[in-house]
Amino acid sequence: MLLNVEGLTKKYVRGGVEFAAVDDVSFSLNEGEFVSVVGHSGCGKSTLFSVIAGLVEPTSGKEVFDGVEFFSLSDNEKAQCRNTKLGYILQGQNLLQNFTVIENICMPLSLGKTGIDNAKIEDVLETFGLTNVAKEYPVNLSGGEQRRVSIARTLVHSPKLIIADEPTSNLDPTNSQIIIDAFRKACREGATVLMSSHNIALADTADRQFKMANGKLSV
Amino acid sequence: MSEIKRKPLSILEIAKRNLSHKKIRTVIMTAFVFILASSIFISTILVDSMTAGINKTVDRIGADVIVVPQESEDSIRSSLFLGNSCTVYTDSSYFDVIKDVEGIEIASPQLYLASLEAECCGIATQIIAFDPETDFIVKPWLDDIKYPKLGYGEVISGCEITTEVGDYIKFFDKEFKLVGKLEQTNTSYDYCVFMDFETAKIILNTDTMQMIVDYADPNSVISSVMIRIKDGYDPASVARYITYKLKIPMKAYTANGMFAVLTENLAQITSFSNILNILLFITAVLALVCIFTITINERRHEFGVLISLGAKSSQIIEMVILEAVFIGLLGGVISLALMGTIVFIFHTSLAELLKVPYIVSDVAVILPLIAKCLIISLITAVLASLYSAIRIGRAEPYSLIKGDE
Fold this sequence. Notes:
heterodimer, A: 219 residues, alpha/beta, Rossmann fold, six-stranded mixed beta sheet, 7 helices, 10 strands, 28% strand, globular, B: 405 residues, alpha+beta, 2 domains, nine-stranded mixed beta sheet, two-stranded antiparallel sheet, 57% helix
């Protein structure tokens, strides 16, 4: 088991009233699994993913990731974890505008001060059809290309867990399929993918599917 | 593919790229540092130059006490300090009264004549005549240039007079042979021409000068008396005695006292300059804090993305501070290179423009000042960025990703 989440809760106060964006969520993911989460906007998917990735503190709950009690790690250890084992694909356009495609893709490696595996980079560029735009700045890319760069950037350091928040939203079927294929390939190589999507057809291609509503997760 | 850069970027390179891709923002922030560094550099150079000018002038005068005609103090002071030429005269008989005052070791008269525009200089030149019998001011300079005695019709000059040694220099249509030039002193003496009283009479007896020096006998005028005091006597007491007891229309000053007004003015200018620099420093810091706060807020999502990719808070803080260091260095280096070059190349023109005897341009003075201004520029920029850097470093990553303030 790669990830085990138990009783995960994240509460916020809005207009003086406390509410649970993530409400007592428990689930597990195995190595190589492709799992999707579906649910309406605002149901708590993004918050759940952010808590799992250590980008926001949970109100309560427990998470064991790759054999380690994740919430007991320091901020630096969580950052280290995101840099090496956990790839997080944010919702929307998230490229760094001051850097070229190749520099964006290599950014996790730059931040981690690790060496760059040229073969891996070339493979990632080819997989996502980005070889010809490697030296371009994000402003010169189409929406689909930008999203592909964003996903390539997450896969470049071969994370054990890929958390993808709406990776195919606003994308045409071709681009969506390229992304799903890349996730499938990553899974075959041993990675685990946790993806949220509005697109039921795409979500159905996952090995397992969770439904989320009002912060609660169900099978 | 081989052309594609695949070297990992360091935080330093990331910071540099962030600046180079936001040119307008970078230029505005750099401009604040530029103005601050330039202001501190120029005001310090100006104050240092004036202080050094006064000290050098006092040293170069070489007299303990200077006696000048009443109402002419400002003209003589201006001539000695700034090189503004003047013609000042009074009866030479007062010299005989002054020289016998107790405590005076030696007294020597001088005569200040302003030439009309001279071929050598394009502007009026200060001519200073001295008495070879009693002189103790110019003689040591003649010894320095190994020219024991000026002959009739011979003159020596300060280093800034353009006529070559051996050539003739013309005043009031009379030619005088330039037999030597003094070393640079960085005082008004660099722009003066020196001759003895006998040679000065050639000028005094010209029709033009006789119209200027409206005196019964133009050959019996002096402008000042330079005095050296015997050991054990107080120059200030001797000066007071001459001014108040001799009942002659002349006023005595100690060498320092002659420039007391200038020293007081300089102290005021220094205080004003310091206050201005402090205010400018605060303004620059506040302006940069505002710009940093606004731009860092705009970039919250960008920092959130970096954190999602595994950046540590310390790396984000380092990035913001490095950007500030670059801005501080850029503003400081551009300013100081420009100001240093201007001062180094145009120090003479600047001195004329700013009405100071000279502008300090020695590398030994300029380099430490450049280092000081550069450090202040860096401190300003880093201080301004600290608040934003720490704030962003402490923010919850998810709030950064959402771009919340």
